[in-house]
Specification:
330 residues, alpha/beta, UDP-N-acetylmuramoyl-L-alanine:D-glutamate ligase, nine-stranded mixed beta sheet, five-stranded mixed beta sheet, 14 strands, 40% helix
Length: 330
């Protein structure tokens, strides 16, 4: 019996969010607006140099699952934490949000993953991620019963960075496909695409039902400077694709058509962390609950607008309430 709308598998990360100016990024050789994987020494040095930080549980797909729960959907998450303080923070926060999370904490010296997110005055975020124990997720930790319980299984592209996590990722996709579930994939980051382009393309063409990418990721995937050209290739390779374009909104490619969804209005962009994650939450919730593609896209835009209006990558208010006010939910 399907009792989850969406189950996600991804990195379990705690975000440490702080503000900085452009000069700080230059001084520490950080590429503005990107996600860079860093080692333990680098994350410690950045943490010492940055200003006060706010700890908020994160992780791309984990954020998406929290968003789905905020819409009133039933979500589950598979991801690896350590038995340490940040692991306890992550476990508490995701459970408090109403997301099913049963992956046991790992014993040992490797800590829970964390991402130092540096937010510049224009709201752009530069992510410096130390994955810690999170990519050590192995095949034995993929909860087949939980995956089979979902209408859609959502996979995080970031997991492709270690062999054991990649194997677990593929295992989850195979379990979902063999159980007749839809498989969704987030490309996660253009640098991630650069590292794994051939494998991503093979996976998308053979195993993925729903693809999520932003403009930088989709043009990187198809090695073109043209969004329109990349979109045409995505439409040929996928059953359904949701391509986000920041203030230009998003383009949904599926059912033989292209649907442009405007960005929802935002009074002030405070922090773009989690915009793509929450767009995916709204879209996946819409698709999983049988809504049409335009409504699913509008739910995604609404969720993205809410999350960029404040610090942090998870909703500050119930998305179901916002959606009802906007006439998108009964």
């Amino acid at each position: 019996m399907q009792d989850h709308d969406v189950v996600g598998i991804g990195n379990a990360i705690v975000d440490i969010i702080g503000r900085c100016d452009e000069a700080f990024l230059v001084k520490h050789a950080r590429a503005k607006g990107s996600m860079q994987l860093v080692d333990a020494a680098t994350v410690a040095a950045l943490y010492d140099a940055m200003g006060p930080g706010t700890e908020i549980s994160g992780g791309s797909v984990a954020n998406t699952m929290v968003g789905i729960a905020s819409f009133g959907g039933k979500a589950g998450f598979i991801g690896k934490t350590a038995d340490d303080r940040l692991g306890q923070v992550f476990r508490h926060d995701i459970a408090a949000a109403g997301v099913t999370f049963k992956t046991p904490a790992a014993a040992g010296a490797e800590p829970t993953g964390r991402s130092l997110i540096l937010v510049t005055p224009d709201g752009q975020r530069t992510m410096n991620t130390f994955l810690g124990v999170s990519p050590r997720l192995g095949g034995g930790e993929v909860d087949a019963e939980l995956i089979r319980s979902a209408r859609i299984v959502y996979l995080e592209g970031y997991l492709f960075d270690r062999p054991e996590a990649k194997a677990a990722f593929r295992q989850a996709a195979e379990i979902a496909a063999s159980s007749g579930r839809q498989v969704a994939l987030s490309l996660s980051d253009p640098f991630c695409v650069d590292r794994h382009r051939a494998e991503f393309l093979q996976l998308i063409r053979n195993s993925v039902d729903i693809l999520f990418a932003n403009e930088a990721e989709i043009t990187s995937l198809y090695e073109t400077g043209s969004f329109d050209a990349a979109a045409r290739q995505a439409q040929a390779d996928t059953k359904l694709a949701a391509l986000t374009r920041s203030e230009k909104g998003s383009v949904i490619l599926g059912e033989g058509k292209s649907i442009t969804i405007p960005a929802a209005p935002v009074a002030k962009v405070v922090d773009t962390t989690g915009a793509g994650d929450l767009y995916a939450a709204g879209f996946l919730f819409g698709v999983a609950t049988g809504r049409n593609l335009e409504t699913a896209g509008r739910l995604g835009s609404l969720a993205a607008a809410e999350v960029i209006s404040h610090v942090g990558a998870r909703p500050a208010v119930k998305l179901a309430d916002l959606a009802r006010k906007g006439g998108l939910l009964d």
